[in-house]
Write a structure and sequence with these properties.
alpha/beta, Rossmann fold
């Protein structure tokens, strides 16, 4: 999967990851190791604290469904959105919002 991503995005593109569970943390760490710029939105403050000490990424504590968090993350300038929260409905909705972001 990451091999396919490398062909589609440039190193200067920012990546927004929604969710820092096992998959989100792994992807963030892997992308950071490959010199991508990563921003993460995660509502669980314990995961945010853990990631803050282990990832060199911009981490925002908030909901993936909060447009203010997306604006804080500067989602309009992101090259790629990865939605890997523990809620499939949120992931699907976030993907649809991401396709139309920025919202007026």
């Amino acid at each position: 999967m990451l091999r396919k991503l490398r062909n589609k995005i440039k190193k200067e593109d920012n990546i927004l990851i929604l969710g820092l569970g096992g998959i989100g943390f792994y992807l963030a760490k892997r992308l950071l190791n490959e010199d991508y710029t990563v921003t993460v939105i995660e509502p669980d403050s314990d995961l945010v604290r853990f990631a803050d000490g282990n990832l060199d990424a911009r981490i925002i504590c908030g909901s993936a469904m909060n447009i203010d968090c997306w604006k804080e993350a500067q989602a309009a300038s992101m090259g790629l959105l990865i939605a890997v929260t523990d809620n499939d409905a949120v992931n699907m909705l976030a993907s649809m919002i991401g396709d139309r972001f920025p919202l007026s």
